[in-house]
Design goal:
By secondary structure, the chain is an alpha/beta fold. It has twelve helices and 16 strands. The strands form four sheets. Strands 6, 7, 10, 11, 12, 13, 14, 15 and 16 form a nine-stranded mixed sheet that branches. Strands 3-4-5 form a three-stranded mixed sheet, covered by helices on one side. The mean pLDDT is 90. It binds adenosine-5'-triphosphate (ATP) and magnesium ion (MG).
């Protein structure tokens, strides 16, 4: 009898956690952007419990998740807090949320989200922002394409370093891939310097052709670089396909702001979600003395975002290397990934991806 008591005391029963307990703990972890827990958002996959060791996968709504580290830590901590858990092995994956219905057949059927980049004024840096957005999203692991919808000055092939003609298979154009991004542009077809005189219907036709006659395949984010203003290309794009949303690029000075507000108002009227405003050429850091100058003033982008009640997506400085890299066909975000400018573009791209997840989630729950 005494011996039995001894054995019981020496070996107290170790609590073994169950998969249900693990899921319950995970259901206390909220995605702060979507406002719901990771279990009901179907972000948890493959929970396995062996003794005290728990293995599972956390699937983010985008590989470019701005809150990635926070969510990973919160999920891991929640599982660790379950009684009996001695080891947690968590993998992180992603299943990109779609704002488009990808169940319908058709050329664009594999494209989950179309993001347009627009501005009121010309020359504010839409194309620069578009290429760096595309390559930053691709570097995060997303499948990305870029469509140069600027029929008047198609310069995306140049900025992406594409100088070959695309392959044509049957009726479809196979987009060349540069820096892991599929590229399509009217620039492929109009190489000489002769100005093309575009009338409204021609512009609409050209944009539609780039959308529907390019074999885009499976794509998480298709970035569309628009010509300046609120003309035919912008209208056609917004009316032909449901857009995940639009990013408005502005420079900081007063003159640019009212025009940016007009562009924003047009997309609102067309029911296109506004993902936010980004301010380009926000400030200049002198490469010689390191001093900052607000050449075009500063803070206008933030002001317009707040007045219009949309998100502010960041300030991009005026830096010689940004222009040089675009001219060399290797956007700075891939050419110099450790630079402060690449980090700024990455933060901006992740904010955009986060906003797209929010729009997609709202659509799924309509
Ligand atoms: N942050 C920046 N730092 C340095 N140069 C920049 C920056 N942003 C844009 N540029 C340069 O300014 C010029 C205009 O930029 P970009 O072509 O991207 O503007 P855009 O809005 O697309 O112009 P358009 O209205 O003609 O299409 C380019 O030479 C580009 O390299
Ligand atoms: Mg441009």
């Amino acid at each position: 009898m005494k011996e039995l008591e001894f054995i019981t005391r020496r070996k107290p029963a170790t609590p073994v956690p169950t998969a249900d307990e693990v899921m319950k703990a995970l259901s206390s972890v909220k995605d702060p952007e979507l406002g719901r827990d990771v279990v009901s958002l179907h972000m948890i996959e493959g929970v396995s419990v062996k003794g005290g060791k728990v293995t599972f996968t956390l699937n983010l709504t985008t590989p470019a998740c701005p809150l990635r580290t926070r969510l990973e830590e919160a999920a891991k901590d929640a599982v660790k807090s379950v009684t009996g858990v001695t080891e947690v092995e968590m993998k992180t994956g992603s299943v990109v949320y779609a704002t488009r219905d990808t169940s319908q057949p058709g050329v664009l059927s594999g494209v989950k989200n179309i993001i347009a980049v627009a501005s009121g004024k010309g020359g504010v840096g839409k194309s620069t922002v578009s290429v760096n957005l595309a390559v930053s999203l691709a570097a995060s692991g997303a499948k990305v394409g870029i469509l140069d919808a600027d029929v008047y000055g198609p310069n995306i092939p140049h900025m992406m370093g594409v100088d070959t003609n695309p392959e044509v298979k049957g009726e479809l154009i196979i987009p060349p891939v540069a820096h892991s991004v599929k590229v399509a542009s009217l620039g492929f077809f109009y190489k000489d310097e002769t100005p093309v005189i575009w009338r409204g219907p021609l512009v609409a036709g050209a944009v539609k052709q780039l959308l529907t006659q390019v074999d885009w395949g499976e794509i998480d984010y298709l970035i569309c670089d628009l010509p300046p203003g609120t003309g035919d290309a912008s209208l056609t794009l917004a009316q032909t396909v449901p857009l995940a949303g639009i990013v408005i690029v502005t420079t900081p000075q007063e003159a640019a702001l009212s025009i940016a507000a007009k562009a924003l108002a047009m997309f609102r009227r067309l029911d296109v979600p506004i993902l936010g405003v980004v301010e380009n050429m926000s400030y200049f850091i002198c490469p010689h003395c390191g001093k900052r100058s607000d050449i075009f003033s500063n803070g206008g982008g933030r002001k317009i975002a707040s007045e219009q009640n949309v998100d502010f997506l960041g300030e991009i400085p005026l830096v010689t290397a940004v222009r040089e890299q675009s001219d060399a066909g290797v956007p700075i975000a891939v050419a110099m990934p450790g630079s402060p400018e690449a980090a700024i573009f990455r933060d901006f791209a992740f904010k955009v991806a986060g906003m797209v997840s929010i729009v997609a989630y709202a659509k799924m729950n309509k």
